[in-house]
Design brief:
The protein is α/β, with parallel strands linked by helices and 356 residues long. It contains eleven helices and 13 strands. Helix 7 links the parallel strand 3 and strand 4 (162-167). The site of N,N,N-trimethyl-histidine has 11 residues, from strand 11.
């Protein structure tokens, strides 16, 4: 059995199914909307989560992957972050998409299959759908409930849109519910989520996207720009403490899903711009010396010791062009806001690609 057919079979198409749980309820609601939603679950597996958490906490410099932020509560907190006065990226990027959407559509082409990586609430795509008019919209996200709710909301607003939602982890090699005769693919990767990956991982991820799209395929990608550290520090450590709650929710999630015994009050949120590496770092700092059990294993913390939970790299335009070039993309166009806070690039997969 090939890997592809294995994944195809594990994919759950909820649309026609009649079961009693929540997600099926939301799929049933979709039966009442004119729009068409099909849902494919590639189940980013809990076994991987457990192994990753235990490995990360066992390292001399403890770390956890930022993708673990996005359980249902974490996805909600992230949505709240995007509305904070200090968090400029979302509203700035949406402003750029609004202003230049028709130029973007001219470059990306219309009537294609539009894949969105890390679609979250599918808010940004809504500013582009009228201009882009894809034949199929394929949101890909790691958070299943969030993906289903968003797809449903989108179908209500865009009843003629054909939606194929895929619950998958794009940070590792991933499959998508693509049909063999779908050749005209484009991708949308907004929000500067590429910044969560170290440059080398980012190059590999972009390389996989290039492979998926094929020569000539277009990628529209949002990339946060380096800027005054004071702006960055405020954006990742807001006055209302929403980002702190988002960071600390990771511990609550581990407690719930992995039999963890973290006391979230015994940790505090820390975020700062690391200028040398051009990245915002988020950490959870142990307020005290303590021992914490997770999934039956014990982890020791010194007072002040941190768990590194996120990097958010900021790329200048030339630096990002070099990264994209190394992944097989040719830069076509870049748009920014007037203040130079954020950039959106249109990249095209070059003809000359050496393997993946
Ligand atoms: C979703 C990865 C783009 O790095 O700005 C927001 C996540 N972390 N506040 C970012 C995040 C803290 C966000 N990305």
């Amino acid at each position: 059995m090939t890997q592809f057919s294995a994944l195809q079979r594990s994919a759950t198409e909820l649309f026609p199914q009649e079961t009693t749980d929540r997600e099926a309820a939301s799929a049933r609601r979709s039966l009442q909307t004119p729009g068409s939603i099909r849902f494919f679950d590639y189940r980013p597996t809990p076994a991987d989560v457990r192994a990753e958490v235990l490995e990360g906490l066992g390292l001399p410099a403890k770390r956890l992957s930022p993708k673990l932020f996005y359980d249902q509560r974490g996805s909600q907190l992230f949505d709240a972050i995007t509305e904070l006065p200090e968090y400029y990226p979302t509203r700035t990027e949406i402003g750029i998409l609004r202003e230049y959407g028709s130029q973007m559509a001219d470059l990306l082409g219309r009537d294609n299959v539009l894949i969105e990586l890390g679609s979250g609430s599918s808010l940004k795509i809504q500013t582009l759908l009228a201009a882009l008019q894809p034949s199929v919209y394929m949101p890909v996200d790691i958070s299943k409930e969030h993906l289903l709710e968003s797809a449903h909301a989108l179908a209500e607003r865009f009843p003629d849109l054909s939606i194929r939602a895929a619950c998958a982890d794009y940070s590792a090699p991933f499959k998508l519910p693509l049909e063999p005769d779908w050749t005209d693919l484009a991708a949308f990767f907004p929000g500067s989520s590429i910044g969560n990956f170290d440059p080398e991982e980012a190059r590999r991820l972009l390389g996989r996207v290039a492979g998926l799209l094929g020569a000539g395929g277009r990628l529209l990608i949002g990339v946060d720009l380096p800027k005054d550290p004071a702006i960055l520090n405020a954006a990742y450590d807001d006055a209302q403490g929403i980002t702190a709650a988002f960071n600390l929710n990771l511990l609550t999630r581990i407690n719930r899903e992995l039999d963890g015994h973290f006391d979230p009050n015994a940790f505090r949120h820390r975020a700062f711009f690391n200028i040398e590496r051009s990245r915002v770092e988020m950490h959870l700092v142990s307020r005290i010396e303590q021992q914490v059990e997770v999934a039956g294993e014990r982890f020791d913390f010194r007072a002040g010791e941190t768990i590194h939970t996120e990097n958010s790299y900021k790329y200048g335009i030339d630096t990002f062009h070099r990264l994209a070039g190394a992944a097989g993309f040719v830069a076509e166009k870049v748009w920014t806001d007037e203040q130079g806070l954020f950039s959106v690039h249109c990249l095209r997969v070059g003809e000359e690609r050496s393997g993946s």
